[in-house]
Write a structure and sequence with these properties.
Blueprint: H1 3-23, H2 32-53, H3 63-88
Helix pairs in contact: 1-2, 1-3, 2-3
Length: 89
């Protein structure tokens, strides 16, 4: 992976992590770095799942892939919140 790919993954992770947080109602008690990491993982996994479903490369915007990534980011943020809240109790 080249340095430009790493920067792209970080930027996509920031956007997807933020969108994942917006999808979940209420306040999430996880940090910014966890949000970015969850977003990066959601981007990678969402792309892999879209590729397996055959919808990764379409003309224009890949809406199905983007929806998968946002959904996975929301699930990841919710999962991280549950882990951090349990750790604080």
């Amino acid at each position: 992976m080249e340095i430009s790919g790493i920067f792209t993954a970080i930027l996509i992770g920031i956007v997807l992590g933020t969108l994942g947080r917006l999808v979940i109602p209420g306040r999430q008690r996880i940090g910014v770095l966890w949000t970015i990491l969850v977003g990066i993982v959601a981007a990678l996994v969402g792309t892999a799942v879209a590729g397996a479903l055959g919808v990764a490369d379409t003309r224009g915007v890949d809406w199905v892939e983007l929806a998968l990534q946002i959904g996975l980011a929301a699930v990841g943020v919710a999962g991280m919140e549950r882990l951090t809240v349990r750790g604080r109790r």
